Amino acid sequence: EDKVVQSPLSLVVHEGDTVTLNCSYEVTNFRSLLWYKQEKKAPTFLFMLTSSGIEKKSGRLSSILDKKELFSILNITATQTGDSAVYLCAVGHDYKLSFGAGTTVTVRA
Amino acid sequence: ETGVTQTPRHLVMGMTNKKSLKCEQHLGHNAMYWYKQSAKKPLELMFVYNFKEQTENNSVPSRFSPECPNSSHLFLHLHTLQPEDSALYLCASSQPGLAGANEQFFGPGTRLTVL
User: Fold this and answer.
1) Chain B: closest CA distance from residue A90 (Å)
2) Which residue among A69, B15, B43, B83 sits deepest, i.e. has the most Cβ atoms within 10 Å of its Cβ?
3) Alpha helix (H) ranges present in A1-109?
């Protein structure tokens, strides 16, 4: 059975902290891993990863994929209250895109 | 704004009603998707259309019926729904290809409540 597991389910940090979100997967015919940020609206795209070991960065966010160990991490440095959201991991495989349950990040001022 | 719009944004319907959700994308994409997001559950892919052809039906009950008249529009026709169908229904679009091969852009969703 295909699985996409995100951890932790939720966390609370203070502004300026660094957070690390995890996504592990077990799927057939892996194609890509995507990260999305969802506030009280549509998920917005952050990264798509297809190759192991190559870090993708966008401002204070970065992500890397390990296809041998079947996981990815999303890092957010110097967190701000605007980073509060649900972060979704999705894996493209076979003819599907399977999502994890998400990690809820709350950043307190 | 992501270039994907959905109407209505909120819908309340009885189990015997028939209603339709509409999605429109202005991004020139040729693939469109319907997802269901229930509380505390992962996003579930329902249907995929590539170049107006349905390429994925993820074991969705027949009370949900998709329609894709052209590459810019996608509908989800609803009839005889159950209360457990209450959820946020999200539409997305992307360049065509296998799911996950290209970034998907999501609409704001329709919050559906079935009484």
Assistant:
1) 8
2) B43
3) none
Nearest to B16 by CA among B86, B83, B80, B112: B80
A42 and B43 within 8 Å at the Cβ level: the answer is no
Low-confidence winner among A76-90, B40-54, B66-80 (lowest mean pLDDT): B40-54
- Note whether B112 contacts A: Cβ–Cβ < 8 A: no
Q: Which residues of chain A have pLDDT under 50?
A: none
Out of A32, A42, A92, closest to residue B106 by CB: A42
Note the pLDDT of residue B50: 81
HEC per residue, B28-93: CCCEEEEEEECCCCCCEEEEEEECCEEEEECCCCCCEEEEEEECCEEEEEEECCCHHHCEEEEEEE
A36 contacts in chain B (CB < 8 Å): 106
The residues facing A93 across adjacent strands are A30, A96
Tokens, residue A38: 């969802």
**B103 Cβ under 8 Å from any chain A Cβ:** yes
Give burial (CB, 10 Å; 0-12/13-18/19+) of A71.
middle
Return the pLDDT at A1. 78
pLDDT at B41: 85
B45, B35 Cβ separation under 8 angstroms: yes
Query: In Å, what is the CA distance from A24 to each residue of A43, A53, A59, A70, A99?
Result: 20, 15, 24, 6, 11
CB atoms A98 and B41 under 8 Å: no
Question: Residue type for B13, please?
Answer: M
